[in-house]
Design brief:
Blueprint: H1 7-19, H2 22-29, H3 33-47, E1 52-55, E2 58-61, H4 63-85, E3 93-99, H5 101-118, E4 122-128, H6 131-139, E5 145-149, E6 158-163, E7 165-170, E8 181-185, H7 191-202, E9 207-212, H8 216-224, E10 230-233, E11 241-244, E12 256-262, H9 269-282, E13 290-292
Parallel strand pairs: 3-4, 3-5, 8-9
Antiparallel strand pairs: 1-2, 2-13, 5-12, 6-12, 7-10, 7-11
Helix pairs in contact: 1-2, 1-3, 1-4, 2-3, 5-9
């Protein structure tokens, strides 16, 4: 195969995946449903592979479709970034964004880099605080967006990421063999701390909290030094950490769920643009794409 892929077809393809179907994608790209279907047939002809397959009443991405999706997203994003660089009327303004520090360590560099390339004239103010504090700031109108750990929150949030929540210790020093088990956890209102303690109590394992901090770097330092065991989402694992499982006597934990909270007040275009970048950077929910039959 040689030649050039049609960017408009790729944009429609991405819209189908992100909107969850051909009908909603047609509204998003301002085309008729038949035009969307025709674009996808031409895209399949262009790459010489089927990108959708029927599965009962649903259509799903084929393996080739999933491969194409990654390229399509990058090509569309690069196009948007190029347009933004030369667009004198591009988005400006300020958006106030909050995130817990552990999410900031893992996700913020990528989010800010993508956003800055797309909207170099926009200003982002970042606040790093625990989820409870971020919710309070959102309610007070002091933040426009916030990434939070989803639990029983007071504000509606958009579910954007799921990860295994894991018991972790040091690879060098077996702190998990100490009785009672030494723990390094967040402050009392931390939902991961509550989950860890309830799980240990359910299996009757003796424990004591040796270190308590909202700062993820401090908790990780205690783990890496072999002083304590903690719980962390999979993406927070660092070199030198060991995952502890049922073989070591640790109960399985419910997955960590990450959400995006938007201001209940009127939002600006720059806020919505940053929200889109956050969702794109954090999304790991669509590993198997399926769409309602059209």
């Amino acid at each position: 195969m040689s030649g050039i892929l049609d960017l408009d077809q790729l944009k429609t393809f991405v819209a189908i995946v992100e909107q969850g179907g051909f009908t909603r994608a047609a509204d998003a790209v301002h085309k008729t449903q038949s035009a969307v279907s025709m674009q996808m047939r031409r895209l399949e002809e262009r790459i010489g592979k089927p990108i959708f397959v029927r599965d009962g009443r649903q259509s799903k991405l084929t393996e080739d479709g999933e491969r194409l999706l990654d390229y399509a997203r990058r090509m569309v994003r690069l196009n948007d970034e190029a347009i933004a660089v030369f667009d004198e009327a591009q988005l400006t303004g300020r958006v106030r964004f909050g995130t817990p520090d552990d999410y900031a360590d893992r996700f913020l560099p990528n989010i800010l880099a993508m956003f800055s390339r797309s909207y170099p004239r926009a200003e982002v103010t970042v606040v790093c605080s625990p989820t409870d504090t971020l919710i309070n700031l959102m309610e007070a109108g002091e933040l426009d967006l916030a990434i939070i750990t989803q639990a029983k929150q007071r504000l509606p949030s958009e579910f954007v990421r799921r990860e295994p929540l894991l018991w972790v210790g040091s690879q060098r020093i077996p702190a998990h063999e100490i009785d009672p088990l030494p723990l390094a956890l967040g402050q009392p209102s931390c939902c991961w701390r509550q989950t860890a303690l309830e799980s240990l109590e359910a299996v009757g394992r003796r424990h004591r909290i040796l270190y308590s901090s909202w700062n993820s770097t401090a908790v990780a330092a205690a783990v890496l030094a072999g002083l304590a065991v903690s719980v962390m989402p999979e993406s927070a694992l660092r070199p030198g950490m060991r995952v502890l499982g049922e073989a070591e006597g640790f109960p399985r934990l419910a997955p960590c769920q990450i959400g995006l909270v938007r201001s209940l007040r009127e939002t600006s275009a720059v806020t919505e643009a940053l929200a889109g970048h956050i969702v794109a950077a954090l999304d790991n929910l669509s590993q198997h794409y399926a769409f309602a039959a059209e």
